[in-house]
Structure formats: C-alpha cells, structure tokens
C-alpha cells in the first residue's frame, strides 16, 4: 500500500490535491547569502497564496542542513490547509561546511533512515522524501556518496528519491547509478530541473526507464527555456509518458517569493497551468498536477 507522508501524517495519494511537486518554504545556503527563506510568516503567506489558486499540496525539497525548519511545518500546513511533504537527503557539497560533511561520513544512510522513520531532529516531523543532487553533466564523489546512501535508505523504507539535476544535466548518469548499480526501481526516482535542459531525446530516454520527470521552476533570464516547455511536455505525453510528468515552482530565494514581488508558488497555477493547458489540454494537465504527484511521492512502506 502506498501513502504520502506529510508533516501532519500519512494521507492517501488522492488526497494530496493539486500539487507543487518541487518547492521550498525554508531554505538557506552559503551560495545565496542574504536570500534565505527563513521567515515563517512569509512561508505562511506563500502557502495561502498557493491555496487561493487551488493548490492542495507542496513538496519541500530542502534537505539536511539547509534550514528546513521542520518544527514549523505542521502549523503552517494546518493554518493554510495545504499538505506539506518534508525531505531528508543532502545537496551538493558546495552548500555545506566541510566539517558537517565529515561528521556524516560512515553514517549518512542511517541519518536518512532516522529522519524518515523517527523524525527530523527533535521536531517529530518525519520526512517523506529523500533529496540528493548531481553535478553538471557528471557525478562527482560527493554525488555518488549521497546517492548510494539515498538508495540504502530507499531500500530500508520504500521512500522515493528526488534528484536535483544541475542545469537539468546528467539524467542518464543518475539513472545508471541509482537504478542500475544501486537497484532502486525507476518509478521511485524523480528527476528535477529537466526544463533547464530541453533535450527531447534525452527526456524520452529517461522517461522510458519509468522514472518521473519534473519540470520545476520558471526560467532565469539566461536559461530561456519556458517557451520550450509546452512542446517538450507535449512530446513526452505523445510518446506515452504523460503519467510520468510533474510540475513545480522551486522557489529558492526570498526575492522569488510572490509576497516579495517574485513569481513564487502561485505562478505554477496562475501562469504555467493555463499555458500548458492550452498546449496539452486541461485533462492531461490536471492529471500531471494531481494523479502523478500522488503516485510519485507515495511511500511504499516496508
């Protein structure tokens, strides 16, 4: 049986509602100084704005050590009526102090499993997702270490693994490692940021494995990929992969929040949804926003 593990407890996949499959309520990294997502009131306002657009669920991909504020998530979920899924996992090495990483050597998989089964820190909030990250067109030693640990945690708990692909690259290398070497079933892997690397052939190759493909976040100016996304998503749907597509907002800085003048979480439903519906039809877009996330983030408890 599969259930989605939210910060308020397990819910059936069909109850997740219209879902932002990749976003952040709290996030902080030394690579983004002064742009931390650290305000609970701003997070509440963002969730409320998403709810006002018809949103029902948000999957926060913020992993270990990057300001998840897990203890604040249950109240925010209750107050706004939006289901929230929290993550364990580890981002790229550049986001962390070396001493923190050294302290995790030899026990990383155990940390992931503990946060999935017992809770994040003293919050009591159990993660429902393992988030890891690749590099630019390659997997370095840190990526391999974290992905192998994520695979071990998956095998122990049945939890899905979400992968930050740097600028959308390295998808096949990730699948070779997670699904080939480490034995994770492809339908338990979610590849993120594919909108940033609009290579249709690569997308179809990845989708053919059975993994989920996330198109998450409006383009930065130098990415210039938003206008390609409807055609990319339609091509995948036409090739029979409509049941493997996910959409998200990926708000990572304070300036990007809608309450601070950015697109934020509501943009996914306010602008992206109608744009895709015009290209793909309402029925498919509805399934991508509701049925697909329910399956992708369902935990097959062991």
Automatic annotation (TrEMBL):
Name this polypeptide is given: Phosphotriesterase
Biological source species: Streptomyces adustus
Named cofactor requirement(s): a divalent metal cation
Residues at which Zn(2+) 1 binds: 22, 24, 131, 250
Gene Ontology MF, one: hydrolase activity
Keyword annotations: Hydrolase, Metal-binding
Pfam families membership: PTE (PF02126)
Residue numbers of N6-carboxylysine PTMs: 131
Entry's cofactor comment: Binds 2 divalent metal cations per subunit.
Organism lineage string: Bacteria, Bacillati, Actinomycetota, Actinomycetes, Kitasatosporales
Residues noted as binding Zn(2+) 2 in the record, renumbered to the chain: 131, 164, 193
SUPFAM superfamilies documented for this protein: Metallo-dependent hydrolases
InterPro entries the UniProt entry points to: Metal_Hydrolase, Phosphotriesterase
Domain of life: Bacteria
Family of the protein in this entry: Belongs to the metallo-dependent hydrolases superfamily. Phosphotriesterase family.
């Amino acid at each position: 049986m599969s259930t989605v593990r939210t910060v308020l407890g397990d819910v059936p996949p069909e109850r997740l509602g219209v879902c932002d499959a990749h976003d952040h309520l709290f996030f902080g990294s030394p690579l983004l100084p002064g742009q931390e997502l650290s305000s609970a009131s701003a997070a509440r306002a963002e969730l409320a704005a998403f709810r006002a657009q018809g949103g029902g669920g948000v999957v926060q991909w913020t992993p270990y050590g990057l300001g998840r504020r897990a203890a604040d998530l249950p109240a925010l979920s209750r107050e706004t009526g939006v289901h929230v899924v929290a993550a364990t996992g580890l981002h790229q090495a550049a986001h962390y102090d070396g001493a923190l990483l050294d302290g995790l050597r030899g026990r990383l998989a155990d940390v992931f499993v503990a946060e999935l089964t017992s809770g994040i820190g003293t919050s009591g909030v159990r993660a429902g997702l393992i988030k890891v990250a690749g590099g630019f067109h390659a997997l370095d030693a840190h990526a391999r270490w974290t992905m192998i640990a994520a695979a071990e945690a998956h095998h122990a708990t049945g939890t899905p693994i979400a992968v930050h692909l740097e600028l959308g690259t390295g998808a096949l290398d990730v699948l070779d490692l997670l699904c080939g070497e480490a034995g994770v079933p492809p339908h338990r892997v979610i590849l993120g940021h594919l909108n940033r690397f609009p290579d249709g052939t690569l997308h179809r190759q990845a989708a053919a494995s059975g993994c989920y493909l996330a198109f998450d976040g409006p383009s930065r100016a130098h990415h210039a990929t938003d206008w390609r996304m409807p055609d990319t998503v339609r091509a995948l749907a036409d090739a029979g992969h409509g049941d493997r597509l996910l959409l998200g907002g990926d708000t990572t800085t304070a300036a990007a929040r809608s309450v601070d003048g950015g697109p934020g979480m509501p943009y996914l439903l306010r602008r992206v949804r109608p744009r895709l519906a015009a290209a793909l039809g309402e029925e498919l877009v509805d399934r991508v926003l509701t049925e697909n996330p329910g399956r992708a983030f369902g935990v097959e408890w062991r």
